[in-house]
Amino acid sequence: MKNKKVHPETQNLFVRASSIFVAFETKDSPGALLYEIFKPCNNLGVLVLSCALSFVSPPFLNCFNLRFLGLENCMDDHTVELEGRGCTTKWAFLERLRVIDLYYTEWAQILSNIELMDNLKELNIEGVRWSQWTIHQLQKNFLTSNSFE
Fold it and tell me: CATH classification of 8-145, choosing from 3.80.10.10, 3.30.540.10, 1.20.120.1810, 1.25.40.10?
């Protein structure tokens, strides 16, 4: 995506989409653009991103039907203003997630909410160095809060 605004016709496609894969050409922060894209995405079940985004208030917080979340080479964007979005992040979108893929994306905060992920069946993490405490907490929470078939 080269433009800083989403064309209305493109926005209509995002509203109806069940799967979205987004990779930005530059390292520039897409910030507000991501919030504009995902705000109306009620049908979104699969989301794969490769870009900078706010880990404190991710742009897909209102995508309550997400089943698959893939983040590849994503970095925390500290420039995104939280004004109007509320600083108290509601992680309700995690409740329906079944698969999380974190590739070269160090986002411990999402893993600290693993107790909300009742339906999580698969967690793939690659290319990230985690502290021993994080690994211990993840194993403890993941193994006790999820049963695999």
Answer: 3.80.10.10
